[in-house]
Design goal:
Chains A, B: This is Aspartate--tRNA ligase. Chains A, B: One of its GO terms (cellular component) is cytoplasm. Chains A, B: Keywords: Aminoacyl-tRNA synthetase, ATP-binding, Cytoplasm, Ligase, Nucleotide-binding, Protein biosynthesis. The structure is a homodimer. Chain A is α+β, with helices and mostly antiparallel strands. Among the domains of chain A are: 92 residues, OB fold (Dihydrolipoamide Acetyltransferase, E2P); 124 residues, GAD-like domain (Gyrase A, domain 2). The first copy, chain A, contains 16 helices and 23 strands. The first copy, chain A, has an 8-stranded mixed sheet with strand order 6-9-10-22-21-20-17-11, with helices on both faces. The first copy, chain A, has a 5-stranded mixed β-barrel with strand order 1-2-3-5-4. In chain A, strands 12-13-16-14-15 form a 5-stranded antiparallel sheet. In chain A, helix 7 crosses helix 12 and helix 13 runs antiparallel to helix 14. The radius of gyration of chain A is 30 Å and the shape is globular. Chains A and B meet through strand 1, helix 3, helix 4, strand 6 and strand 7 of A and strand 1, helix 3, helix 4, strand 6 and strand 7 of B. Strand 23 of chain A pairs antiparallel with strand 23 of chain B.
């Protein structure tokens, strides 16, 4: 049934022993990583959360220990007492490789069956197996390390905000369903029949309430929930570093948060970022990178060549410009020879998924200009395009003509795709940029109305308040995103702090006064009683940890994640519940017919 | 619409100005606590989260500022620039009472209607109003202070565990419904029709999984949920400091946690606790205090006088002992004169709510023995009772005879009640005790079986493992609670770390092997692969903060609490949702007929 610890107490961790410990008597506890019988001795790699020590059983030292060790299998949990000696054959790959421990006493604390997955970083078992046996998967050193980096980052974030006079305040998990935004997870209320709580998509309104409460500076590392169909790096519950400050404008929030970002990258990656972090207005990001989260680790910026080709004989270009579209291009400078016709045709296929109808290109190689469209363009037009990019021998220019949205989307993805193919994306390089001056609204074709690009509490840029009703499409928001290597890691805004402006905002979104009050009544009520200027930011904590650990999969930075199907393979949640429970909640099931 | 901050930036907080700031030019921002026009000047108490500064408007300094100030009302949000001067009439009650600020420039950042509640600590508005206008209620200095102490405590707890090599790991909020324990909050899954997540009642199983994962030391400050009918100091969501360690026994956990408790009380209350904290086995606590969470700030211990009266002529006593009951008593020493017959009859009524049939008493006063039962007891019996308590002139002994449970419950509550009435409970005194050696099981009459007193993963005391099946009622658990001033602030145990023992435990609880696997299959599966000895503790964080702030109501230490009816008066959650949302979730409402 497993031996008991008794009075035995751990003196060292397995990963900590060094030459300086030679001659020490130590007690180690952990899991058996590997056992070998060799030359009359038994060698065991003993593993705990800090690493591995080699322990040796020798009948000359303890026959009893040796005999027990002979029964030990992988993943047995044992405790040993022994003496540290200099290792005969040192292992330079192991921090503890200079020593080994000769065992005087061993206790088998628990046995183990043969585990269904290997406990090693390079085990290539399926994701499903990893999630089902998560407690074994988490024994792998890289997973332990990911969780520790997560812990360290959280600690650093908390220390930072504490030092800067922020107060950690917990906001409710059982909240009010949100009328705007993504789909809520709902929780039926037993005490209040036929009513539901929602799990928060973010504590946005609550943190604003805290500012109205005079809390001045708030932060929280908090779970948020979205019942959306899960894409690759999404989880139904995710973690947010949530921040809000009073009596500030954009500059104050950005400056403070740059200090945090600096500290995180310095302490966790050893990288000293140049401050201030560069800023780029939304419009420029879209124009140059086709994205509001540009990856700046490589070039290939987008350039608008509509002016050059607007009168071209090549109708594909000139007609596009004529009908309000655009012709834009990127120069993949120096890599002309990397793109075969077959390769280009694959790229064309790729950008068609973003709506492009085709991909034109111009190569400048030893033979001169090489392009399937060269026969349709005048020499002047081709020269102007080349000149526009300062293109040289060895360059290749990719051109897309379409509606602006399609052109930017296609070229934005194309520049990333070619950089990937050319292996130009350096995982150890970090490029930071604040994207600013987002549009306040975006037009929703489905609903045929303007909707808030961020949320309806975002403050317009002061100079644009006057055109809120007349030219909503031109109104810029006091909003900002921090983008690292093409990932939006955080974003925020200055909020509206005045009931009159808030009502104008709701009005611009097409809500009647009654609708606005029924949706956001408590906010509008609160706004009657003196609201300080305030704003904040929220970071996607899981994504930040992915960046810091170099993981590509969000599940590798979360202890107990869900599958794409929002289930836990470990616990088998969600599961059926009995009828009585549902009756108590005043709900019944609808059976799924399709 | 409210003036904009522009380039104006806060230089100081309102509560921070002192004589040393005299002649400084400062910018303050905050809410108008009070405005008075006096002798041609306007005086404003300006409040932010740190306190209040008096600011003065004088037409000689700025006519523009003065005119704006004349429009200012309570709770307006303003920013001022001005010079600190020595105050004419100093206010010793205010930390900033030595200075005032003469204003050169003022901006009205937002106006306010007359707030429906006063922003002052001693406002005695109803709880309902406080919760509905929570953002105003939180402006009160004592509420700001409570949230700050909560923040400081959380910070201290996090620092402590970080320093002791614990890793903060987030466990899921969307979990599997629990077959044992309190009622779950359920969350219908849209993607998995007719299946439900549950919100965790505690991360118990997940933290054990982390130990099986080799995480070694885990902590988390985490929200937990119970859909129970709410008693006075309960909330549907509450916060727990959750801790688990591997390769430890009771002693290690208690010793480490005493350091934490020491640190909390030292840094937040300035009290240095004597370590080690005293320990009391469950049986002793029940015998002496009628409770497993005894308040040790006062005496009046319970004593068993069954032996003395078992052969008494007084049948109420002797029959009780004959039929397996007990006669116990407390001596409220020195307070005989405080209890009139009317007072005693009220106490009797009070203990009847705990099942007692009556309350006997013996006074020792100037006239000698005064007791309604003296005529039924022999002189020897009375003398023996008096001797048992070393009772003296001025004492009063209260006696209850009944089944043990009723006797202990009644006298346990009686001793607290009389201490309250006698005003012997000192809010500034803190008495700590570990209650240990809890019974592993308790008999559930309703279900006619033994159930786990804590939970089914609690490790029995090693010596008692052999009698698990034969004498379950005698098996003690490796469990411990930390009790402060009669409140259980935390509790935990060593867990079973062996599948065989875990199965024996489930068996003792009356589960078939199939039931055990269907309820806790993933734990039993995990237990096949090497489980370290482990154990932990969980603190009720809200209750801890109540203790540290001296609050009697849990709602005063939570930013946005729910009512007794589990509703938010601020946001009006829970609320109705539309039919489409429910259909997506494959549920429909049952209308409540009663």
């Amino acid at each position: 049934m497993g031996e008991k610890l008794g009075s035995l107490r751990r003196t060292h961790m397995c990963g900590d022993l060094r030459s300086s410990n030679i001659n020490d008597e130590v007690v180690l506890m952990g899991w058996v990583q590997k056992r070998r019988n060799l030359g009359g001795l038994i060698f065991v790699d003993l593993r705990d959360t800090t690493g591995i020590s080699q322990i040796v059983f020798d009948t000359d030292i303890s026959e009893d220990a040796f005999n027990k060790a002979d029964k030990i299998r992988n993943e047995y949990v044992i405790a040993i007492k022994g003496n540290v000696v200099e290792r005969h054959s040192k292992n330079k790959d192991l921090p503890t490789g200079d020593i080994e421990v000769f065992v005087k006493e061993v206790k088998i604390l628990d046995e183990s069956q043969t585990p269904p997955i290997y406990i090693k970083d390079d085990d290539d078992v399926s994701d499903a197996m990893r999630l089902k046996y998560r407690y074994l998967d988490l024994r792998k050193p890289f997973m332990q390390n990911n969780l520790k980096i997560r812990h360290k980052t959280a600690k650093l974030v908390r220390d930072f905000f504490d030092e800067n006079s922020f107060v950690e305040v917990e906001t409710p998990i059982l909240t009010k369903p949100t009328p705007e935004g993504a789909r809520d997870y709902l929780v039926p209320s037993r005490v209040n029949p036929n009513k539901f709580f929602a799990l928060p998509q973010s504590p946005q309104l609550m943190k604003q309430m805290l500012m109205v409460s005079g809390m001045d500076r708030y932060y929280q590392i908090v779970k948020c929930f979205r019942d959306e169909d899960l894409r690759a790096n999404r989880q139904p519950e995710f973690t947010q570093v949530d921040v809000e400050m009073s009596f500030v404008d954009i500059e104050d929030i950005i400056r403070l948060n740059e200090k945090l970002i600096y500290k995180i990258f310095k302490e966790l990656k050893g990288i000293e970022i140049d401050l201030p972090i560069k800023r780029m207005p939304y419009r420029e990001a879209m124009d140059k990178y086709g994205s509001d989260k540009p990856d700046l680790r490589f070039g290939f910026e987008i350039s608008n060549i509509s002016e050059i080709v607007k009168d071209s004989q090549f109708k594909v270009f000139s007609d596009t410009v004529d009908t309000g579209g655009e012709v834009r291009a990127i120069n993949v400078n120096g890599y002309e020879s990397e793109f075969s016709r077959k390769g280009i045709s694959k790229l064309e296929k790729y950008i068609k998924t973003y709506g492009a109808k085709g991909l034109a290109w111009i190569k400048i190689n030893e033979e001169g200009i090489n392009s399937p469209i060269s026969k349709f363009l005048s020499e002047e037009e081709i020269n102007n395009i080349i000149e526009n990019f300062n293109a040289k021998l060895g360059d290749i220019i990719f051109i897309v003509a379409d509606k602006q949205k399609v052109v930017l989307d296609s070229l934005g993805h194309l520049r990333i795709e070619v950089a990937k193919q050319l292996d130009l994306i350096d995982d150890e390089k970090f490029e930071f940029v604040w994207i600013t001056e987002f549009p306040l609204f975006e037009y929703n074709e489905e609903e045929d109305r303007y909707v808030a690009k961020h949320h309806p509490f975002t403050h317009p840029v002061d100079e644009d308040i006057d055109i809120l009703e007349t030219s909503p499409e031109k109104v810029r928001a006091k909003a900002y995103d921090i983008v690292i290597n093409g990932d939006e890691i955080g974003g925020g805004s200055i909020r509206i702090n005045n009931s009159e402006l808030q009502e104008r905002m709701f009005n611009a979104l097409g809500f009647t006064k009654e609708e606005a009050w029924s949706k956001f009544g408590f906010l509008l009520e609160a706004f009657k009683y003196g609201v300080p200027p305030h704003g904040g930011i929220a970071y996607g904590f899981d994504r930040l940890i992915m960046l810091l650990t170099g993981m590509k999969n969000i599940r590798d930075v979360i202890a107990f994640p869900k599958t794409q199907n929002a289930t836990s393979l470990l616990t088998e949640a969600p599961s059926g519940v009995n009828k009585d429970q549902l009756e108590e909640l005043n709900i019944s099931l609808i059976s799924k017919n399709d």
